[in-house]
Amino acid sequence: MLDLVLDVAKQDERVRAVIMNGSRANLNAQRDLFADFDIVYLVTDVAPFKRNREWIRSFGEIMILQTPDDMREPPPSEDAGYAYLMQFTDGNRIDLSIHPIARLDEVSRDSLSVLLLDKDNAIEPFPPPSERDYLPTPPSAKQYADCCNEFWWVCPYVAKGLWREQLTYAKFMLDQVVRDELMKMLTWYIGVQTDFSRNLGGFGKFFQEYLEPELWKQLQRTYADASYDNMWEALFVMCDLYRRVAVATAQRFGFEYPHGEDSRVSAHLELVRRLPRDATAVH
Question: Would you say the pTM of this structure is higher than 0.85?
Fold first, then answer.
């Protein structure tokens, strides 16, 4: 597939350079059959590549295609870049960005980038690819405090949704909002353990490699099904896990963990869980 990407570029005079980004530029990444090809074609004129889509058939039989720039409102200007996201029936996928070479200065020099082709020797060489741009960074005191506040602020929303038996609302608050703050804190916690020198992947996909087995099992228990009892259990497990890693992170940086907010909200959650469905007052 990479040879094909380059052959298409070499045979088309409008394509002046090719850059590869992402996991296939990462020497540390594990390769498997689902690894995408993230490619940038730098071209003399973007418009012809947008108007006629027949040329992308050179890459293979397309299972599904997405052109995200056509989904934008308002649409981008005519001289802006354009992307083809292509999933092929043979399992390969190419995320191909077409970018005007006249606007080369707007192309991101991602740390995981490799210059594959430069017909005009016009592009400044890239440094060796590294994971530098993908490493977690330590939190500031404000970022840490905001994360703690948001986590404990939204937990009562989950409890309210569970008591009302509003499944989709409770699920969203638990698995989107509250979990986002947990994942953020886990990233900082693992960062402390690894001196912020490891790429943890998008959405924490490498967390299992770095979390202690006990904490990993606890994280697994936060993923509940649609049972209200199981969702209640997941919420309390999530609170306990958050508390453990947040306190450890605070100790590492000399931050103040909000024990008062934690204890008051936790007591409220326990109260709501025991609250009868016909209750007319919380207390």
Answer: yes
